[in-house]
Amino acid sequence: KTPKHNNTHTNTEFQISPLATIEELSTTHCPSYIQRFLNGNMTDMEIRNTGFPWSTQGVNRALSSVGGTVAAATFICEQLEQRQQEEEEEENPTKENDTNRNDSSSPPPPIWAAHVAGGTHHAFHDYGEGFCIFSDIAVAANVIRQRYAHLIKRILIIDLDVHQGNGNAVLFQNRNDVMTFSIHCQSNYFSKKEISDLDVEVPASCNDDTYLVTLRHWLSRIEKEGGEYDFVFYQAGVDVLEDDRLGKMSMSKDGVVQRNKLVYDFAKRRNIPMVITMGGGYPKDRDDWSSILDAHSNVYFQAHRYISDCCGGGDGVKEGEKEDVVESL
Which of 35, 79, 86, 139 makes the best surface tag, with the fewest CB within 10 Å? Predict the structure, then answer.
């Protein structure tokens, strides 16, 4: 959980992803498609397009992948409501709460949450592809827009997977309340190219310097010209790595760390709540996942350290502690 204002440490609470409900899925996906998948009635072509054989375990996996992102986004909204209530009490203190009033002038820490899964951005309204059944980010965005419309007016999706977030691009076409921003490899489309609100193509074999200059430029443009946002979803795919089997790009581990920091800096500067999800990552050597797993885990450890530093505690997970935390997961 994100710490309360003026705490000196970050209390990270791990929770099991709940399964998404049919009601939640229906905010985004076709009811008949949902039922066909849940009941195992998909056609051979549909199954082939998703990349997964159908199974009951696969159903639970897909529901959990969505449910965890919905839970993370909902948690943030609950924290926002709580913070809003505390601010109102500070503005209009009663005798009881005036005694415990926090007079610190330092800004409250960012409210972030992360899902160690999700990022299934190739799912469309009534079909899936590219190992994606349902779009967890799209479902979560629609759920919080419905449940917390008084708090969340406009959402930004930052998709930095090597592949275009084509499903989300279509799901949010002509929606002024959600902006889709995708940076992806220009020679790595495995299906029809779609149109996001902002698509940025980078060349094959793109290195750290080119990628980071590009991302920094467009985040700056969004910050200056994109208007206000109440919420960010960050799809943190690591298939941009040179070590990735499907990525076609040449980023280093350190380059991906710098990429993450640019996004974290953006969210912190704007004080925008953020949910972080996984994305793609496929090792060239199928027997050695170390570089891919390191890059995935760094997304989360780096966010934890970043929040800890924002709180002044500086007690985020240290490099030597990674193994213990990963083992506990």
Answer: 35
